[in-house]
Specification:
Elements lengths: L4 E2 L9 H7 L9 H18 L5 E4 L3 H12 L5 E6 L2 H12 L3 E6 L8 H10 L3 E7 L1 E2 L4 E2 L2 H8 L6 E5 L11 H4 L3 E5 L11 E5 L1 H9 L9 H8 L10 H17 L1 H21 L3 E2 L8 E5 L6 H12 L1 E2 L1 E2 L8 E5 L6 H17 L6 H12 L2
Parallel strand pairs: 1-13, 3-4, 3-5, 5-8, 8-9
Antiparallel strand pairs: 2-10, 6-7, 9-10, 11-12, 12-15, 14-15
Bound molecules: pyridoxal-5'-phosphate.
Amino acid sequence: MKKKRLFTPGPTSVPEEILLEMAKPIMHHRTDEFRAIVKEVSNGLKYIFQTENNVFIIGSSGTGAMETAITNVFSKGNKIAVVCGGKFGERFAEIGSVYGLEILPVEIEWGKTFKAEELEKLLQENPDIKGLCTPLCETSTGTTFDVESYGKVISKFQDVILVVDGVSSLGAIPCYMDRWGIDVLLTGSQKALMLPPGLSFISLSKKAWEKTENSDIPKYYFDLKKYKKAIEKDDFPFTIPVSLVIGLKRSVDMFREYGLENIWSLHSKRAEATRKGIEEMGLELLSEKPSDAVTAIKLPEGIDGEKLVKNLRTQYGISMAGGQDKLKGKIIRISHLGYMDEFDVLTAIIAVGICLEQMGYKCNLEDGIKEAKKILFS
Ligand SMILES: *Cc1c(COP(=O)(O)O)cnc(C)c1O
């Protein structure tokens, strides 16, 4: 018998108390009982998003919310800038192209960031840009982007909106939608919110809503006007995954109980311990601005990252993520998202160290553990 552990940046492990909630018999979604739950869930999501705006719930994975963002706030032929520093930024660009937008990719080296000053210059040089799409945390490289500063820049441009993919970061690292001037913020259920995959969430500022009025991109299932009308009655336009919403109720309650800022600092501590432990072991981080949601580690020359991921899973039941696209085989990524504790952090570090040793790379595992322990338990 092998114990399975998830250290992937989605899906993440789901707390037992949420699993038990979701195991209850299915409730009909057009009932007062369910609507009462939806009302509380909606308020909880506003807290997690740090917004006064509605947060819409959609039955889809995170990418569905990305598609919702593009199709609702832009129009055909609109020019948008997209921060392409990894797989998920590129996905925004791909979705935009599919719907006939003109994409101005901001190509940055994977693992590097994009400065707010450069954004300001870009917007001045391209007065026809209608929006900037960026992840808050680029999961493929474990890099955080300075969305707060982007918000300050964009607020000076009346016709530009800031669209932020918070799928791997919302509920894990600081993000204040309203205060930072984010116009569209979205996430999915299977990362920091500690739920199974299947729900996505999206919220729009007033500035973004005004853009939806003129949007000429075809959409049906993802038409936010339908969701807006329904949510006024704590309802949905289509059958929502009922069990997931019931689980979500427990998740938002947990966010309230622990406090969003406390949860952020727990992630920060886990990430810090992982980074320091890994560096002490003699390995290097990929990102110049590492995210507290996920840590991407460069693998030593001669180590096949795909094989490392496979060994961890088959030998020890431990799931971690490898590199995607151009980073395939070159990195390993450890998630700090959601339902984790100090001992999980140590487990992850030790597992990587042991597997590397078995593959012939000698690292200073003991030093790494010592360093991580110091950060976790002091
Ligand atoms: C996981 C993730 C997504 C969405 O992926 P889905 O598989 O569609 O849920 C989008 N953006 C980022 C940054 C992610 O980490």
